[in-house]
Amino acid sequence: MPETTHLTLPLLPLHNGVVFPHMVVTVRIETEEGRTALAAAAEGDTQLLLVPRVDGKYASVGTIAEIQRIDDDNIVISGVARARVGAGSTDGDGALWVEAEPYPEVDVIDDELETLVEEYRAVVSAVLENRGMGGIAERVLAMDNPSRLADLAVYSPDLSLEQKVEVLEALDVRSRLGKLLGWMREVLADQELRRRVRDDAAEHIDKSQREYLLRQQLEAIKRELGEDGGAVSDYRAKVEQLELPEKVKEAIEREIDRLEQMSEQSPEHSWIRTWLDTMLEIPWGTQSEDRLDLEEAWAVLDADHTGLHDVKERIVEHLAVRKLRSERGLAKGDGRNAGAILLLVGPPGVGKTSLGESVAKALGREFVRVALGGVRDEAEIRGHRRTYLGARPGRIARALVEAGTMNPVFLLDEMDKVGADWRGDPSSALLEVLDPAQNHTFRDNYLEVDLELSDVLFIATANVAETIPAALLDRTEMIRIDGYTDEEKVAIARDHLLPRQVRSAGLEPEEIEVTENALAAIVDRYTREAGVRGLERQLGKLTRKVATEVAKTGVEGSHITIDEADIRERLGRPKIWKDEASDRTDVPGVATGLAVTGTGGDVLFVEASVVGDERSLMLTGQLGDVMQESAKIALSYVEAHATDLGLDPDKLKGRIHLHVPAGAIPKDGPSAGITMATALVSLLTGRKVKASVGMTGEITLQGKVLPIGGLKQKVLAAHRAGLTEVILPERNEGDLEDLPEKVRQELTFHIASSISEVLDKALES
Asked: Is 742 annotated in the active site?
């Protein structure tokens, strides 16, 4: 370096770092001003003044640097000395030349500086040792020159750019070391704080482990002394008190052992406790005593429900079997085929759901109900796996907890409305529940032990059996409840519905009296249904009218009698007309058929007409595929046997139009064949169908009449509609035994095996 007091050098600004004397670094030139300064230095004596620029401002002190090598935009430079930055100017090439006053590093080493250096070495060594950089610490301790020792701080990651600039601007080495010593003490204090936090955390973990071991030892000591041992001891005490099945007891004890060895901080600790609580809530070995008095049980069923003889008889049979086995000391056996699974199928409002509660009362058992309508998740039946968040047992296990016994009456309501989606098929999960050969070992996914369900009396309900999977239907004992006659409805209204509606309206029994004739009129003129739900709504409307009258008068002890003549005033005009069949069949081409819907039996009218000359068949009335096939079969039979039937073949050349009114309601089913054939023959022969005749049956191309299902519901619908004659297939003759005696006396039944027999009974002369 020339021995001059002032130098004029091109300025190279540093934006991201600081270069100290005695440093050799590689700098990448990326800006235009940097390239200009480099070109100016290359033309001169290859020296530059490196000045840091922080927040747009140049430092007051820079570093004189010597260019060692130039490699494209990368230059290797070595720091020479600090220099104060003076005035500057720009040359013609755009380079900024500034005056630089070099600062000679001539420091007097005295005792004060020696003390400062030793203290700084100790602090830096401690910082480096904490970071595991002992080798670098040795190099720091070996540095003799105080100024160079201080300048090594440029490599410290603990100092910011602003702090490094302050070190560069501190020309006095004592000031420089003082700044660095303060900063490094802060770094060392931060390291010590972090180390203490880390050590405290490790100590806490060790303490928790030590406390856990001590707690386990304490519980062991308490067990030896017969004292309370906490939650684990509580669970063990409960297990000893309960009469648990052997496998269940083993499973519970295994989980208690796991709980005993597990820290309370473990998330699985709460899962095990929840599982244990659920297992101990199951009423293992608890059973209700059956009421084995058959007469009393029948009396209870009769008091709650009118009719339903088949269901009552099946319940009494179940009781009789249990009574005999109990009296004769027969062993329970292996549990197979011990349970009873009844399926009550019938239209809405016939009392299927309420019957389950009556059965429980008759047996003296607890009653639980599970509504299956809309259930789509298989886990609702079988439970969730214990690994799932929020896992819990299925509805079967929860119902046992709710009942408090292992032999309740379990009502599975609306089994025909179970759904299925990506979460599973609940009806498949019910296969094991409702199989008497398997449900003695039903396994819930959450409990993971076998549940004994063979003593449970399952009663399932459904409106239609067709939507229930065949495999599930095969595991049940189906009992059909097809509906009530008008006389049974009057008795139900008098004994059950009216008293309930009187209480609901806030009336006293002595304030209202509804005569038998009035009840019969309501049944006859205001409802037409298989059940009694609509009848109960009409009675509710009637009692509200009476309650309004009583509330307006405010007279205590008033008595209002409702007779047949008072019904229209309170319920409005009648909604049912009995002469509907005669009105519909007063012209040829209309026949009265009988059908079964989801709401019970119903009467359908089939109308036929011939229009135009083009030969074709047109069907209207929202007919399903099966009824459309029945219509085609009927027409083919009529065409093939036109001569035998006495028809004019020319009349079959037009377009045949078959229509079933109420087109907004979809209709389907294999029982309308003879009705359609009768309507066609009536149209083509000009002979009207008898207004008093209803018919049901399917037809073949040879004219045979095939059997049908749902005969009782269809006959009851014909009886409600005022028909007096019913034509039915020969093979359904045995089903007439299921009809009430009064209906069999009031209706005339014609048995037919061929369509010719149907026409003989249905058409007028």
From this structure: no
